[in-house]
Amino acid sequence: KNEVEQSPQNLTAQEGEFITINCSYSVGISALHWLQQHPGGGIVSLFMLSSGKKKHGRLIATINIQEKHSSLHITASHPRDSAVYICAVEGSEGGLTFGKGTHLIIQP
Amino acid sequence: ETGVTQSPTHLIKTRGQQVTLRCSSQSGHNTVSWYQQALGQGPQFIFQYYREEENGRGNFPPRFSGLQFPNYSSELNVNALELDDSALYLCASSYLTHTDTQYFGPGTRLTVL
To answer: Measuring CA to CA, which residue among A48, A5, A49 is closest to residue A24?
Structure first.
């Protein structure tokens, strides 16, 4: 069973700061997903990665398959980025295995 | 908006009862996965259906069962409800069973008293 560790668990930053959230997993995967969940809200997919790097607006996601590690970066952070960011991995057993999430608060 | 809907939004049941939760996937999405998210925890994989057949299952007992229909709707059934079944139940649809973007519904909040 894959173990997914995220860090930090909680992060408070000022508007405009560069944000990095890290994710490590223990077993080989077919893909890694970064997801966003607002309080009381549903989950939105941000990225799906099998290798390399993806960018969407102010969000950048990278993955190092050899090191079993991924990072999510937010540039020029804004209060509307406040949410829970979740790393989830796909293995051979089907479905996603989720990390516990990173609670991000961006203060104006 | 992900195009995935779930009903009902909230539900209250008592221990021992049975419940059916529903999910409507995006048109064309042959795969639906169900997850249980307890308060303050990350979602846990219950099972996945692909073209109306169960395609994978997490560590949940047989009283958790599902159905998927040709019209891209699906159901999660839970028998003999226990207090620990209280959670947010999420469905996620995709075209492929693996390595594909997941589109999550807003969830059904189940409370078991």
So the answer is: A5
At A92 the pLDDT is 73
Say whether residue A83 is in contact with chain B using an 8 A CB cutoff.
no
List CB contacts of A92: < 8 A, sequence separation 6 or more. Answer: A30
Q: Which residues pair with B44 in a beta bridge?
A: B36
Evaluate whether B65 touches B77 at the Cβ level (below 8 Å).
Answer: yes
* Among A residues 18-57, those touching chain B with beta carbons less than 8 Å apart: 30-31, 33, 35, 41-45, 48, 50
CB contact under 8 A, A45 and B42: no
Dist CA A55 CA B2 (whole Å) = 20
Give the length of chain A.
Answer: 108
Interface test with A, best of B102, B103, B108 (most A CBs within 10 A): B102
Read off the pLDDT of residues B51-104 as tens digits, 9 standing for 90 and up: 999 999 999 999 999 999 999 999 999 999 999 999 999 999 998 888 889 999
